[in-house]
Design goal:
Radius of gyration: 16 Å
Strand order of the largest sheet: 3-2-1-4-5
Structural class: alpha/beta
Helix content: 40-55%
Strand content: 15-25%
Shape: globular
Number of helices: 5
Order of helices and strands: EEEHEHEHHEEH
Amino acid sequence: MPAEPASVVAIDPGTIIMGVAVAQGTPEDWRLLTAFADSRGKDESLLDRFRHIQDVSYNLVFHHSPSIFLIEQQVSMQGRARINETAFWLLVLGAVRAFGALGREPAVAQVNPGTLKKWATGDGNADTVRVARAMLDRFGFWPTREIRGGKQRLQEDVSMAFVLAQMGLAWLAGEDILLKDVE
């Protein structure tokens, strides 16, 4: 029986909208299993937001058994924001680590937003539209959602999660990518 292709679960947690992408295969021969935006209310507490991301992370790992779980690092300045980032990281890590007892624990890593942008475009300061255009050029992926009047709008959080998923496939294939906290 052939081994299952490597898979990657990637999330861009966002402030209100979380982008999710799950890819499987190799950098040259991949398929997107799912990509979506998960939106929560603006009035949701930070704790509720963290718990929801923890639940989504757990379910993604449960259903997809990834080789690696990537998350865009939360950029924080100092003080309270640093505490929030640490709490967030521990909740997500806890959700993913729960699979260790089942022998299905993936590697887990954070990716700095600048590293993500540089990998996608060659410029660590590129805006999200430029990153999305690079993904369209390289992989033919341009996630949109319909807005008023039938117009389409780029789903930036999904695009960033897609970049993370592609980075994960490249990392699994041996590409030297700077990932933080790989465990």
